[in-house]
């Protein structure tokens, strides 16, 4: 099993918490150039994924892919089909959308392309919070978007929420959770607001124009989320993800279990996957593209003749960073990804010396009840969920 991730770093307006490019003032030529580059990268990197494994998932994210025209979406999907052919055995094809982009025409286009799962960035239903985040939709548009997709035949829908937003009260947050549950979607993701470098949100924070939530408020909001969704029948299968039985995200799960995936587009990451056995680790690497759209399209947006030139290959090498992971780095990757899952880390697959190190390092957390150990796995307890970053730091090398 392997997957493909396509990154569209565009959005209609620049949200305060992200650094994506706004489509305001963007020309059709810019979109065409970016799509051309995506397709050329797909063609040039068709041998990246293991030839012995089928491609089972596609995730079209960003940014907001739903800002692209139907023509461009068709172009990209048809390129994937041309490149992978019989190796494409899709079980899950996810498309990220903004609620205010959703129309019957868009839903029909996505069904035609084979999309069978939708992820929508709702973030909140509260008008005050949506205004602060510079989101363009409202609560009624979210409900309408869900019904539009269902009417088109796409019922596997995930909604994203954010908590810890300046000015967000506990009552506001509980209301957001309840409104999400009321829509009966099979998957919900929720993330704590983070302050990333060089984003509008962080600049507001540095100017003293907003006051961040306290750690105690973050914790209480997370606890409210876990309790409410558990009571509603959702499985808490990863730190930030909840699903009804049978609706775990297959693509996102690949990030947590070491499955190979190809990332295409400006800022996209790729991973060769981890092979861990009791006798040792295999060889693996990861790579990522430059975030600058102009440099990316310049490097990849070439004709097939130019692709064979040394000059073109040099241009591509300048926008791609690749690193080979040593054994310690592979172990650390397992800690910070697999421990996020409800089932935790499969000890039987760890090389002997790393399993011994993990068990020694984990003993304090096992003793204090934040980690639980079984004959085959080690995983976070409910108590450990709230300090997962601290626990992971203690376990890595």
Structure commentary:
By secondary structure, this protein is of the alpha/beta class. Helix 1 runs parallel beside helix 2 (70-84) and helix 1 (28-44) packs across helix 10 (293-300). The protein has helices at residues 28-44, 70-84, 104-113, 127-132, 139-152, 170-182, 200-206, 215-231, 250-257, 293-300, 304-307, 310-318, 327-338, 352-367, 382-385, 388-395, and strands at residues 2-8, 10-11, 21-22, 55-62, 88-97, 117-123, 157-163, 187-192, 235-238, 241-243, 261-264, 269-271, 276-277, 280-281, 284-289, 320-325, 345-346, 371-373, 377-380. 38% of the residues are buried. A 9-stranded mixed beta sheet has the order 9-10-8-7-6-5-4-1-11, sandwiched between helices.
Descriptive tags:
16 helices, 42% helix, 3-stranded antiparallel sheet, globular, 397 residues, alpha/beta
């Amino acid at each position: 099993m392997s997957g493909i991730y396509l990154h569209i770093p565009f959005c209609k307006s620049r949200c305060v918490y992200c650094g994506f490019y706004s489509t305001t003032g963007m020309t059709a030529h810019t979109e065409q150039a970016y799509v051309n580059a995506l397709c050329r990268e797909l063609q040039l990197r068709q041998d990246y994924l293991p030839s012995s494994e089928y491609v089972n998932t596609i995730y079209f994210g960003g940014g907001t892919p739903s800002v692209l025209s139907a023509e461009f979406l068709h172009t990209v999907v048809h390129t994937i089909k041309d490149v992978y052919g019989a190796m494409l055995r899709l079980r899950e094809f996810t498309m990220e959308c903004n609620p205010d982009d959703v129309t019957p025409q868009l839903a029909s286009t996505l069904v035609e392309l084979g999309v069978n799962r939708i992820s929508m960035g709702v973030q909140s239903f509260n008008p005050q919070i949506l205004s602060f985040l510079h989101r363009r939709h409202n609560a009624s548009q979210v409900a309408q978007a869900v019904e539009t997709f269902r009417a088109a035949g796409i019922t596997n829908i995930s909604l994203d929420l954010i908590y810890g937003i300046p000015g967000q009260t506990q009552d506001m947050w509980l209301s957001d959770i309840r409104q999400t549950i009321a829509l009966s979607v099979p998957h919900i993701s929720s993330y704590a607001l983070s302050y990333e470098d060089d984003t509008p949100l962080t600049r507001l924070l540095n100017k003293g124009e907003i006051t961040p939530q306290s750690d105690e408020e973050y914790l209480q909001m997370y606890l409210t989320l876990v309790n409410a969704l558990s009571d509603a029948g959702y499985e808490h299968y990863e730190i930030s993800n909840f699903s009804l039985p049978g609706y775990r995200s297959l693509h996102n799960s690949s990030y947590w279990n070491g499955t190979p995936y190809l990332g295409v587009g400006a800022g996209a990451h790729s991973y060769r996957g981890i092979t861990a056995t009791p006798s040792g680790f295999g060889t693996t690497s990861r790579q990522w593209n430059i975030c600058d759209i102009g440099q990316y399209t310049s490097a990849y947006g070439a004709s097939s003749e130019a692709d064979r030139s040394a000059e073109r290959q040099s241009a591509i090498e300048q926008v791609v960073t690749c690193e080979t992971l040593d054994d310690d780095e592979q172990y650390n990757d397992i800690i910070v990804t697999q421990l996020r899952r409800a089932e935790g880390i499969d000890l039987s697959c760890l090389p002997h010396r790393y399993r011994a190190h993990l068990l020694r390092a984990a003993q304090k957390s096992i003793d204090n009840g934040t980690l639980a150990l079984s004959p085959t796995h080690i995983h976070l307890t409910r108590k450990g969920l709230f300090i997962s970053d601290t626990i992971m730091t203690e376990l890595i090398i």
